[in-house]
Design brief:
The complex is a heterodimer of chains A (about 280) and B (about 325). Chain A has about 280 residues and is mainly α. Chain A has helices spanning about 5-35, 40, 60-65, 70-100, 105-115, 120-135, 140-145, 150-160, 165-175, 180-190, 190-210, 210-215, 225-235, 240-260, 265-275. Chain B folds into two domains: about 5-60, no CATH class; about 85-310, MetI-like (MetI-like fold). In chain B, helix 4 (about 85-115) packs across helix 8 and helix 8 packs antiparallel against helix 11. Classes of the chains: A mainly alpha (about 280), B mainly alpha (about 325).
């Protein structure tokens, strides 16, 4: 290897490391602010990165300034429920579109794919009206029912199911296995990485959703974390009390960051393989 | 399952006559299982996608305000009004500026970082994780964080600029800078996405091709210009489509950071729909904007597919 190669890589590493610090700065700033003891420290110029003293009490204070335990429960409950139902429906539809023969299959599949072309915003007014007529506004139904089917999941899982060797399926059919058994004992076990990817991506989308939750809920009982933290901004601990606001922001971001770091491989692979949703 | 039971199962299956339509035979078990598996999803899509699309178009021909029991028909008045609505055109223009600003920076930086991360350097995994992290965070929460960063007097950005003797603008409250601020935040957030897709694209480029170019004496720039970049064109195109569509749908940041202001300088299409339908309670007019919005997104996709045929090199 030539010296110039070493030099080249050295420069690249320095540039990347410096850029990484810049990308991380907003997060460091958030944590730093969240630990500042009072507004004087928050508004100090030039800013002091490591607060003195470190005010850990901002976290319980922020947590208690709004019903955050309720927000957390709502976020977890609605995201987990939607992901579980979508996983079931996704597997069922993917199986039907990959291993079952029935008339109108291609046509129906096209109907599913077309759903991917319809942005949420186009259906937001009519769906609001539909749910309001059903008396489902301001209820968990509104946060769950519209998301129970998945075109993206059907498409993704179908790709995985199509990779399953047909010999395996034929053998199971000869053994008298039902379609549900083939799905449970062959398709699903052989598609675990895809299913995990789908669950993670989908979970993060539901968890991060703001627009829909904002529109269909108007009480603290149903707000999720993203909508809750914005609601807190209007309260007494909000406004320009940036130390409390940033503590609350850390609380909102921690679960999704922890999940991302724990399951990074599936996130990154999932995004680069499916690439759906560019931000 | 014993041998005899197995045979019995196969026999009972074979005993049932298949359904025949137009020369193709369908097993009954396939038919009813497919119906069972697909019906729940079809009902959901039927109500929340297909009925919703139709209802949205119907609403766009009314002046409904969420309250009256009937839907007062106004024909095409909403569309005519939209055509003369300066705020709508402003929103369309702003959305385009936001999309172009975000995409160009995010793609150039994403490609640069991907190229650099593709080299044999230490801590690659950690660096990749750091660049990707903003992408998975909750937009609403990081929007709040960036409101604080853009704080004109005490925010991080202007503090950093002050180090260089620059007095930073008032960012979110300055109509000349608010859109720039939104773009900066969104580049930070979407950079990791373009980087990860580009990295995947880079990994699919055959190594021997680059080796051969090196032996032939091609420098780094030449092999990027004539090999890597052309071979990445499907990736570039793919990123362009996905980021353009998602940039056009921006909402959370605008709702939290600027509410479309100051003086309409950050009003975007999606926020305008929200404003008309859910703030001003004009369901009919909101539906009109979203119908046009849908048509715009569809035509972007169609144009992109057309263009891709011209300049994307597939291997």
């Amino acid at each position: 290897m030539r010296i110039s190669d070493h030099l080249y890589r050295g420069i690249i590493f320095i540039v990347l490391a410096a850029s990484a610090v810049v990308v991380l700065l907003p997060f460091l700033w958030m944590v730093s602010t969240s630990l500042k003891p009072d507004l004087r420290a928050v508004y100090q110029f030039p800013p002091q990165w490591i607060p003195d003293p470190i005010a850990w009490e901002n976290y319980p204070k922020a947590w208690n300034s709004a019903p955050f335990s309720r927000y957390l429960f709502n976020s977890v409950f609605t995201s987990v429920t939607v992901v579980a139902i979508q996983l079931i429906n996704g597997c069922l539809c993917a199986y039907a579109f990959s291993w079952l023969k029935f008339p109108g299959r291609d046509w129906l599949f096209l109907l599913f794919l077309a759903v991917l072309m319809v942005p949420n915003e186009v259906t937001i007014v009519p769906n609001y009206v539909t749910l309001s007529r059903a008396g489902a506004l301001n209820s968990y139904w509104a946060l769950i029912v519209p998301f129970m089917a998945t075109a993206f999941g059907t498409f993704l899982i179908r790709q995985a199911f199509l990779q399953v060797p047909s010999d395996l399926v034929d053998a199971a059919v000869v053994d008298g296995a039902s379609h549900l058994q083939i799905l449970r004992h062959i398709m699903i076990p052989l598609s675990v990485p895809t299913l995990l990817t789908f669950m993670l991506l989908n979970f993060s989308w539901r968890w991060n959703d703001y627009f829909w939750v904002l529109i269909v809920t108007n009480s603290d009982l149903l707000r999720t974390l993203p909508v809750g933290v914005i609601a807190m901004r209007a309260g007494p601990e909000g406004g320009s009390n940036w130390h409390y606001m940033m503590a609350a922001t850390v609380i909102v971001l921690l679960p999704i960051l922890a999940l991302f770091i724990a399951a990074q491989r599936y996130f990154v692979e999932g995004i680069s393989r499916t690439g759906l949703r560019g931000g | 399952m014993s041998e005899s039971l197995r045979l019995q199962a196969v026999k009972s299956r074979a005993a049932r006559p298949a359904l025949q339509i137009g020369g193709t035979k369908y097993a009954w078990s396939h038919l009813w299982v497919a119906a069972l598996f697909l019906t729940p999803s079809l009902i959901i899509f039927g109500i929340f996608i297909y009925y919703a699309l139709g209802f949205n178009i119907f609403l766009s021909t009314t002046s409904w305000n969420f309250l009256t029991p009937d839907f007062p028909s106004v024909g095409f008045d909403n569309y005519i009004r939209l055509f003369n609505d300066a705020r709508f055109w402003r929103a369309l223009g702003n959305t385009a500026v936001f999309a172009i600003g975000t995409i160009s920076f995010s793609m150039v930086l994403g490609l640069l970082f991907a190229l650099m991360l593709n080299e044999k350097i230490p801590a690659r995994g950690v660096l990749r994780t750091i660049f990707f992290t903003p992408y998975v965070t909750t937009t609403a929460a990081v929007a709040l964080l960036w409101v604080w960063i853009f704080d004109p007097r005490y925010g991080l950005l202007n503090a950093a600029l002050a180090l260089f003797g620059i007095t930073g603008p008032r960012w979110l409250t300055d109509q000349n800078w608010a859109m720039t601020a939104l773009i900066i935040m969104n580049v930070w957030k979407t950079l990791g996405y373009t980087m990860v897709i580009y990295l995947a694209g880079l990994q699919s480029i055959p190594r021997d091709l680059l080796e051969a170019a090196k032996i032939d004496g091609a420098g780094r720039w030449a092999s990027f210009r004539y090999i890597t970049f052309p071979l990445l064109s499907p990736t570039t195109f793919f990123i362009l489509v996905t980021t353009l569509l998602s940039a056009f749908q921006v909402f959370d940041q605008v709702a939290i950071m600027t509410q479309g202001g100051p003086v309409g300088s950050t009003i975007v299409l999606n926020y305008y729909i929200y404003e008309q339908a859910f703030v001003n309670m004009r369901a009919g007019y909101g539906a009109t904007i979203s119908t046009i919005f849908f048509l715009i997104l569809l035509s972007i996709t169609v144009i992109q597919v057309r263009l891709s045929r011209r300049w994307v090199h597939y291997q």
